[in-house]
Amino acid sequence: MHEEFLILALIGGLISLDVTVLGQWMVSRPLVSGVIIGTLLGDTWAGFKVGVIIELVWVNVIPVGVAIPLDVSVVSILASSWFLIANRVSMAALVLGITFAIPAGMLFKMIDVEMRRRNVFMIHHVDTWVKNGKENRIPLLIYVGIILTFLRSFVFLYGMLYVGWLIIAYLIGVLPTSLLQGLRFASEVLPLLGIVIALHGIHFKASEAIGAYVQTVKGKK
């Protein structure tokens, strides 16, 4: 089990680099990362299902500029892993996996914000190097940033995978049947909820665009 967690954390750490640090090939999107984790754990369809749900809910959330949204790749990786490792037969495990993955993603965001805040101090070193004609050191600082980002994600995912697995596996064994049935029903409703949220986001953006166009036309008149 520990080897499985180690491999998942390593892959998750590499996937997390795609968010903003390296690549940005959209591998970190829940739809893709969920499939990757599902394939590694022997159930591509289950990973796809988790990824689709999370992708639909957060499809309009992207890291642009200084905005630091919830890292949905971490949410997808944890939810898919917990579901497939804890009890892939019970759909209640899917709902519990997503439920616990969301606050875990929020915690990861707090760590990310703190890490970026500390990165500001690196700018002073860059200014000093430029003044002293040592620009060749700047690429080294970039590589260090990539490594630290990977290590942050790796350590966080490894710890959370173990803790979450223990909690979800325990809950599946002790929760009453009626509650488990309710969670199974929720697993069927979640995709519909995701579609509604995605459509709402599209409608909201369309309304903003139309409103801006109308205001522009009025201004010209």
Quick tags:
221 residues; mainly alpha
Describe it.
With 221 residues, the chain is mainly α. It has one domain. The protein is built from seven helices and no strands. Helix 4 runs parallel beside helix 6, helix 5 runs antiparallel to helix 6 and helix 5 crosses helix 7. The chain is elongated. The mean pLDDT is 77.
Distance, first to last CA:
68 Å
Shape, please?
elongated
Helix share bin: over 70%
For the CA atoms, what is the radius of gyration? 21 Å
Percent of residues in beta strands = under 5%
What does the main sheet amount to? Answer: none
Tell me the domain tally.
1
**Tally of DSSP β-strands:** 0
Series of H and E elements: HHHHHHH
Structural class: mainly alpha
Sequence stretches where pLDDT stays below 50 over 5 or more residues? none
Overall average pLDDT? 77
Number of helices: 7
Topology of helices and strands:
Layout: H1 2-17, H2 30-40, H3 44-57, H4 72-87, H5 91-131, H6 138-174, H7 177-220
Helix pairs in contact: 1-4, 1-6, 2-3, 2-4, 3-4, 3-7, 4-5, 4-6, 5-6, 5-7
Quick description:
With 221 residues, this protein is mostly helical. The chain has seven helices and no strands.
